[in-house]
Known about the structure:
By secondary structure, the protein is an alpha+beta fold. The protein has helices at about 5-15, 60-70; strands at about 25-30, 35, 45, 50-60, 80-90, 100-105, 110-115.
Amino acid sequence: xxxxxxxxxxxxxxxxxxxxxxxxxxxxxxxxxxxxxxxxxxxxxxxxxxxxxxxxxxxxxxxxxxxxxxxxxxxxxxxxxxxxxxxxxxxxxxxxxxxxxxxxxxxxxxxxxxxxxxxxxxxxxxx
Length: 127
């Protein structure tokens, strides 16, 4: 699981290389555990996220984590059951692989998003 400390180490390394300052994008999605199945019935091994939405970005990781944990501004919207905090640096076609993102899932009992280990099928994906 990508922790705040491990992500901060990556950020410092990239900043030393001149990559600039990152933004932290909150990307919400509907299905945290559904696999994409082709029309032929063959399983793809990739996630089927369902409806997705980038709902905002922050320049501060702590604020992004707080907003996700606390369901700030009702980011769940009654639809999104999981989300990522993606760490993106300036530039075109930026991607956040598993070590550059934090995975959260909705906890109905606590009524908040809780960070968890992302499912294995996400390991091949960058967002």
